[in-house]
Specification:
Chain lengths: ~260, ~180
């Protein structure tokens, strides 16, 4: 590269329009010709200062956008009665959970304050705990059905807080593992199901889910889990999966390792 | 984690899943706001223009195709939105290079600027005096995902012409800067 070329490509370099080879050539030219550093630094200053003092948009912009989106959605799409009821119930679930927890906390505080010597009867505590579990269980099923991936992740986290899971929750988690479009949500579902591998329904469900997984990350997580479970039924399925086209190399290696580890 | 491409999300919006527009909004709101703000230096107006872009996306979603590149499409809309606002407000802050001297005589006090910040202050003034068309191409070329090819598609010219326009814009900025600096 000579000086003329250098001068003509400063802007291309700064705007990241140069190929890797040309970028290297450009850098090399500056190393070999330090006298042109000032020219480059000046151009860089121009470039960086151009939009240097851009403030962040305010939260009002978000509020206006989501209000617009909601009104557009309402006006263009007829909201079905069932959906409305679901939305209504979803609102209630959050409130119910919050009210239940708040009532329990206040009750506990007042009870302790009035009669600190007596503790809660164990039976009542168990009933209250069961109620919270029920509310939480309903919340999980509803959240797993939400369009927002964050809400669905929250749902899986709620499962981790539960002492016992119902069959409905297990089914909802499998539905998520096999159908959710978000890899993070699917990985979280595996993590949640991992705690219940003592249940045969869960073990069978996990093995059956392997073949549906297309994401290498999920395939790797499944391979690890099957080794942990020493699930021999998974071996044939992994072999079948490895034979498929377009399987990621790392995932393939991981599955091959798992087959070896399970077979031993 | 961006698990769905912009294109997949926009095709979802087109198919009627308006919620997916929320994800696109989160991905693009800062870039669009920055683009508008640096064009008009009015934060309030820029927020409104970002809103207008997304309203237009919903209005014209039927024109989006699988072959479209979302970043190009959204900046085409942004550019038109900026242009409409510019026409509406008639806030033409552009001055030709010949007008710079007059403008300086009338309003500026560059001597008052603290020495160490002098270059930055002059540069800011130079940016302010740059024509909207030239500001626009420099701003677009600062987005990593917009190469000359994409910029050409946004502003309606070839890749080679887009490169020339970006180079000319930077050169003009330098010239304005030097004119101001020599005073």
């Amino acid at each position: 590269m000579n000086y003329k070329e250098f001068k003509e490509t400063i802007v291309d370099y700064l705007s990241e329009n140069l190929s890797e080879d040309k970028q290297q050539e450009f850098k090399q030219f500056l190393v070999e010709n330090p006298q042109y550093n000032i020219e480059f630094e000046t151009a860089k200053l121009f470039w960086s200062e151009f939009d240097n003092e851009t403030p962040d948009p305010t939260p009002e912009m978000d509020m206006k956008f989501y209000a617009m989106l909601n009104s557009q959605t309402k006006s263009t799409k007829e909201v079905s009665i069932i959906k409305s009821i679901e939305n209504f119930l979803f609102g209630s679930f959050s409130k119910q959970l919050a009210y239940t927890l708040a009532t329990l906390a206040i009750g506990f505080f007042i009870g302790n304050h009035i009669n600190p010597s007596k503790s809660f009867p164990e039976k009542e505590l168990a009933v209250a705990k069961q109620e919270i579990e029920n509310v939480r269980s309903q919340l999980v099923v509803t959240l797993l059905d939400q369009p927002s991936a964050n809400k669905r992740l929250q749902a899986v986290n709620e499962v981790n807080k539960m002492d016992n899971v119902t069959e409905t929750i297990i089914k909802a988690l499998f539905m998520t593992l096999n159908n959710d479009e978000n890899v993070n949500v699917r990985l979280s579902a595996i993590e949640a199901l991992k705690n219940y591998t003592n249940i045969s329904l869960v073990r069978e469900g996990l093995v059956a889910s392997i073949i549906n997984q297309e994401s290498p990350l999920v395939q790797i997580a499944m391979a690890d889990l099957m080794v942990e479970m020493q699930e021999k039924d998974a071996v044939e399925i992994f072999k079948e999966l490895i034979e498929k086209e377009n399987i990621n190399e790392s995932a393939k290696e991981k599955m091959e390792e798992s087959i070896q580890s399970i077979a031993i | 984690m961006n698990t769905l491409s912009d294109n997949a999300l926009m095709l979802g919006v087109k198919a009627g899943d308006n919620h997916k527009l929320g994800l696109l909004y989160e991905r693009y709101k800062k870039r669009l706001f920055g683009f508008f703000y640096n064009m008009n230096k009015d934060a309030y107006l820029s927020e409104d223009l970002v809103q207008n872009v997304f309203m237009k996306i919903l209005k014209y979603k039927h024109t989006y195709t699988e072959e479209s590149k979302f970043v190009v499409w959204i900046f085409q809309i942004a550019r038109n939105t900026s242009y409409d606002s510019f026409k509406k407000n008639k806030k033409n802050v552009h001055k030709d290079i010949e007008d710079v001297e007059y403008s300086l005589n009338a309003t500026d006090d560059i001597d008052g600027v603290i020495v160490k910040n002098e270059n930055t202050a002059i540069l800011k003034k130079a940016i302010e005096l740059l024509s909207p068309e030239k500001k626009e191409v420099i701003l677009l070329s600062k987005f990593k995902e917009l190469k000359y090819k994409e910029i050409g598609k946004i502003i309606g010219c070839s890749e080679g012409n887009a490169r020339i326009k970006v180079h000319r814009a930077v050169n003009e900025l330098k010239n304005i800067f030097l004119t101001l600096d020599n005073r």
